[in-house]
Amino acid sequence: MSRGGHSEARRAFDVVVAGNAGVDTNVFLPAQGIDFEVEANFTENLDCAGQAGVYAARSYAALGFRTAFIGHVGDDWPGRMVKEAFAQDGIDTALLGHDPAGTARSVNLIYADGRRKNFYDGKGHFDLSVDLAACRALLAGAKLLHAHLANWTRTLLPLARELQVPIACDLQDIVALDDPYRADYLRQADILFASAVNHPDPAPLIRALFAAGPARLVICGMGAEGCTLGAREAGRVDIRHFPALDLPEPVVDTNGAGDSLAAGFLSSHVLKGLPLGEAILRGQLAARHACAQRATSARQITAAQLDALASRPPAAPGRRSR
Fold first, then answer.
1. Is the Cβ–Cβ distance between 229 and 250 less than 8 Å?
2. pLDDT value at 3 more than 70
3. Fold classification of 15-311 (topology level)
C-alpha cells in the first residue's frame, strides 16, 4: 500500500474503518472556569486531526494493523490535515471521498481535569453516499468493519454481513433506546460499543441492546468507573464490570478515549484472538494512554507499548475521568 492512498484494488486489510474524519478544535479552559459575565476569556485553542474515524483508524495503524478508511473530507485545510495524518500512518484512503459541505469539525471544551463538552458539525454526512461496489471489493478481504454513526455507513452493514465480515459499531452516548437513527446498527452489528454516561447502571442498557439485535458482545465505557462488558452465548448473558486503570501520566484530554478503547479491544479479541478479559485490559490501557495525550491523534499507543503495559497492568486509580 502506498502512503498516498493508492492501494491495490483487492489488497487484504485487517480492518476497515468507516465514518467521519475531521478536525477537532480543543479549547482548554482555565482551572478557575469561564467567567460568563465578561465577553472574552483567555483559553488555549489547539487544532488536530480528529473525529471518531481518525482516532480509530490511527489507533489500529499504531498497533501495527493494515488499515483502510472509508469516508469523506472537504477541499479545505481541515481535509488536508486529515489526509496528511492518514498518509503519515500509512492508512489506505483509496475510498476517501469528497464532501462538498466541507470537512467535519468539532469544538471541544476541555476542563482542567480532562473532561470535555463536544460541539459537533458533521457537515454533509446526512446526504453523502459511497461507491458500494468499491466498498464490497475492499471489505471482501477484511477481517473487521469498524463503523461509526455517519449516516451513510449504514449502507455498508448488509455488505459486511453478506461477506461474513464481523461488524463493530460505536453507538456513542445513547439517550433513548428506541432512537430510530441507531436501529440499523443495532439490528446488524456483532459487537457494540456505547457510552454509559446517560446510564449509571449499564446492565439494563446492555440487556436492551442484546434484545434489539444479534450482537454477541456489548462494551459500555464508564469513564472514571471503568467499563462493563456484556457477552451473550447460547442464549445466556454474562455481564462483568472492569474498574478503571491508572497510569503515571495525568488525564489531560479525553478526546479519542472511547475510540482507543474500541480499537484496543477489537484488535486484541477479533484480530488476535485473545480472551475477552485480556482484550478488555488492553482496550482500557489504550484508552488511558489516549487520555494522557493533549490535542493530538498522532500519539496513539503502539503494539510495543501496549504489550509492555499489559504484562504489568496498573492498579485502579480511585476516581479519574476518562
1. no
2. no
3. UDP-N-acetylmuramoyl-L-alanine:D-glutamate ligase (3.40.1190)
